[in-house]
Amino acid sequence: MVLLSILAAANIAAGPAAADPRGPDVSSWQHGGGRLVDWFGVRAAGHDFAMVKATEGLHYVNPFFVPDSLIMRTAGVARGVYHYARPRQSPELQAAFFAATVLGENGPLDLPPVLDLEKSEGLAPAALIDWTRRYLAVVATLTGRAPIIYTYPNFWRKAMANTTEFSQYPLWIADYNGRESPGPLPGGWRTWTFWQHTDCGRVPGIAGCVDVNVYNGPHDTFRRLANMPTS
Q1: Which residues, in sequence order, are CB contacts of 231 under 8 Å at separation 6+?
Q2: In the chain, what are the domain boundaries?
Q3: Which of 10, 45, 95, 227 is most buried per CB count within 10 Å?
Q4: Which residues touch 103 (CB under 8 Å, ≥6 apart)?
Q5: pTM of the model
Q6: Is 105 among the catalytic positions?
Q7: Which candidate in 118, 165, 180, 220 is catalytic?
């Protein structure tokens, strides 16, 4: 995996324009020793949002999901929440588990829910496509918002047989290519909504390496997506 070089003085990864809305994504890995993220420091460094892991499979809840969510809101950081898919387990039950854990995705500073799809767990493409279809439908019903799909280009092309069935959903693409934009995109997507452009960025307020992402568009469209006032 080729990592982007980091501009240490500016704490910004090379690639996307610094003026675009940007932010990290975090899980329990960013809380070593029980350390909390300094979300006020994250916001002061110019990061507009963060993606936070909420659940995985049918039983795991990120133990830092609640404190992260509460402090992010206080600090003014827009919150995206994601579920790490375990395709060997029921998509409907995982969708219900996720929705019950996050308790709403329609408040101020809420981005749409995210499905993190990066493991097939041995399912053939047709079965994984069916699993994805069912999960997304239930989450959309329970949250009232069209979910975002997070994936890697090679995973989608192989494990999902590069299906174009889901190209109407917003795409969060992980692509560490060292360029100014991701691509070529898989699955018939013509554009991306979020781009994870490095897995080892430096963000004030978060210890160690962290994934860093950028939003594809101006701040006014981002504010609408995050249920923020646009005026």
Answers
A1: none
A2: 20-225
A3: 95
A4: none
A5: 0.91
A6: no
A7: 118
199 a catalytic residue: no
**Domain spanning 20-225: CATH 3.20.20.80:** yes
Q: Does the active-site annotation cover 116?
A: yes
- Report how far residue 142's alpha carbon sits from residue 198's, in angstroms, rounded to the nearest whole number: 32
Active-site entry in 25, 48, 68, 175: 25
Condensed to tens digits (0 to 9), the pLDDT of residues 139-154 reads: 999 999 999 999 999 9
Give 152-181 pLDDT, tens digit per residue.
999 999 999 999 999 999 999 999 999 999
Residue 83: strand pairing partners = 55, 115
The 3-state DSSP class for residue 51 equals strand
Q: What is the pLDDT of residues 92-116, one digit of tens each?
A: 999 999 999 998 889 999 999 999 9
Q: What CA–CA distance (Å, rounded) separates 14 from 222?
A: 21
Q: How far apart are alpha carbons 225 and 148 in whole angstroms?
A: 11
